[in-house]
What does this fold into?
Amino acid sequence: MKCVIIANGDVEYTNDIISIIRDAQLIISADGGARHLRALNILPHVMIGDFDSILPADKLFFKKKKVEMLIFSSKKDHTDSEICVSWAIDNKATDITLLGVTGTRLDHTLANIFLLKELARENIPARIINKNNEIHIITDHIELNGQPKDLLSIIPVTQKVTGITLKGLEYPLVNADIKMGSSIGISNTFKGTLATISIKKGILIVIKSKD
It folds into this structure.
């Protein structure tokens, strides 16, 4: 089941983003992310969070629409985004896209990126999408579609990632090792329309981006 989680960060209302939301079988609004869904006239299946950032008018709007609201205390051990991810897994989501989870708060942005690590361990395909980036974390392999010259970077988030093989990129690798902190994987580019990244051991952030 495809799931979209929409938080309170910036969301570009492009046709692609709107299609991702509308095609989801499960739409979750994380607290203030309700503003995006109201702007797009899309009803979530559930609204989750401590509701400290949702606009009162948005909360009232969805309350009148009888959307289910799961309200948590603001004194909690997990962010709204993490609670939404856990709820999605418990409710049989098999593919998760996170929107509005990056922004000016670097702490929140990093915490949300590392939610992808737990989803990778659960073997649930997931990604974060914003205006300029599509972010993945992998523990084995991934195939990504793009266009020639699209940027793609890989960043180790374990002490070392081993057995890295890159295909379909300007600078391929075969069974290479990269240590955490190295910038060698930054700003590769697509040669065609498909790139394949695989690793044998470790955890790797993969980012398709545009300036």
